Known about the structure:
Blueprint: H1 3-27, H2 30-37, H3 41-47, H4 51-68, H5 80-97, H6 101-111, H7 113-122, H8 125-135, H9 137-142, H10 150-166, H11 168-178, H12 182-202
Helix pairs in contact: 1-2, 1-4, 1-6, 2-3, 5-10, 5-12, 6-7, 10-12
Amino acid sequence: MTESEKQTEEKIFESATEVFLKKGMDGARMQDIANHAGINKSLLHYYYRTKDHLFNAVFEKIAGQMFKKFAPVLDENLSLEEKIRFFFREHISFLQRNPRLPAFFMNELNRNPERIKKLVQSMDVKKLWSTLEKQHKEEFVKYNITRETIPQLMTSIAAMSVFPFVAKAIISGIMEKMGYDFDEYIELRKKYAADFVIKAITK
């Protein structure tokens, strides 16, 4: 592939990402993506023959970038509390920079739950658990965190981080009525959510 072809492919990928995030899989058209990239539809099909093929590539890259962002939770030099604070701080900041991602994933979850299931199953959850258990064995015993309760903890943490963005229209409406600013609320949530979880597991 020549340098020019690489640049064209990157332009297509960036345009597809923008269009899919804005319109979703069902709402996006290949013509929309071609127009956004400033190329003709035939050239787009030369690189990506179908919308499904292009969407899969975009979806997998976005998901990969998101999960890679949180690799430091396996850093053995961080305490369990530091990892919880890191997750909320970085995850909420990531969603602030990419506010359309939660709705994008929710739409895809409803449209094609098998894709999300395969994505989750591609992650080595057992390795993640084993690593955390080894690194924080004493803390897990002290706070009664077990294989049975870890799914509750993980889903609670994820929900506390993602829900405000999924329900932004509702929450921001309530905030405005009460005289609060949504952006300020989100900034405060990074610490509040971490404090809440840490207090819940260490009580």
